[in-house]
Amino acid sequence: MKKKGNRLVLVKLLQKIAPKIGAKVLLEPEWGIAGQIAYKSGRKRYFRYSTLDLNRMGASEIARDKDFANFFMKRMGYPTIPGKTFFTDHWAEVIGSKRTMDAGYQYARKLGFPVIVKPNSRSQGVGVALAYDKKEFYRAMNAAFKEDNVVLVQRPVYGKDYRLVVLDNEIVSAYQRIPLSVTGDGKSSINKLLIEKQRRFKKEGRDTLLKLNDPRMALKLKHQGLNMRSVPAKRETIYLLDNANLSTGGDSIDMTKYVHLGFQKIAISLTKGMGLRLCGVDLMIDGDISTKPGRYWVIEVNSAPGLDHYFKIGRAQEKIVEGLYLRVLKSMEK
């Protein structure tokens, strides 16, 4: 739980915009993450973290489960990332499955290394790793199993990573997500550049905490022939993680005004097909989101897309997020 002094952007936004429609927000005071929205009509709605009373529970639960969501998206004809789920020994025994970690390794060999390993029901890039060999695979699986009894093993796909946020029939925001990186000055080590990046995050009001001892960073650098003491050349960009989540230090480029109509239709149709009204659609595009759809994959869908980091990009993004949640508040009263 997040303590009272570290409330989410969503909480502050709801408290700010609710009075515009005559609604009141009652916040649970100890943790500051759960609340009630009371409308003039007498209707009451609730929220916890970034989850609001807008999407139906069944659809939200399917979206949270990456494997189930992939099944339904694939059946609807959307290109999903090839992969399969595997279980902790205990959970495999409980459900009567032979898909243990060792079976996962055999599957990874069949796919061909490297493979992506990710907890099935976690978000924000938690536990996501790219494994290049047997040793790295087992290390990644053990780390992922600390987060979830179910872990996905997937073939990596390459391109530009985008998040599109859909509300009913409209794309309300879209941005490209870029993995955590540092840019060299020719003098500073990667470790020092990361410390400086953390200072910059704090100054900008971004609460992302960079874990300098994250083993995924060490592995990523190892495969580039580098380590934390390495000094990148001036203007040389070094990537430190394979996932592009903003919550793990990734950066973003706002693309809201440039999304091709074809990708707009894909994201809106997918959101409806998954039974959702508010949805974060994550796409990996072999090309650019501003051009006609060609080769792409649906990475996942998110029924409670947190927009904290997007909100902090700039004033234009603040207005987009405020407008989105004002419309969400109005929709929830119906």
UniProtKB/TrEMBL annotation:
Gene3D superfamilies in the cross-refs: ATP-grasp fold, A domain (3.30.1490.20), ATP-grasp fold, B domain (3.30.470.20)
One of the GO biological process terms: SOS response
- Source organism's superkingdom? Bacteria
The keyword Nucleotide-binding appears for this protein? yes
An example GO CC term for this entry is:
cytoplasm
Keyword tags: ATP-binding, Ligase, Nucleotide-binding
Alphabetized PROSITE patterns for the sequence: ATP_GRASP (PS50975)
InterPro entries associated with the record: ATP-grasp (IPR011761), ATP-grasp_RimK-type (IPR013651), ATP_grasp_subdomain_1 (IPR013815), Dala_Dala_lig_C (IPR011095)
Q: Which residues form the ATP-grasp domain?
A: 70-330
According to the UniProt entry, its GO molecular function terms are: ATP binding; D-alanine-D-alanine ligase activity; metal ion binding; ribosomal S6-glutamic acid ligase activity
Name of protein: ATP-grasp domain-containing protein
Q: Which organism is it from?
A: Candidatus Colwellbacteria bacterium RIFCSPLOWO2_01_FULL_48_10
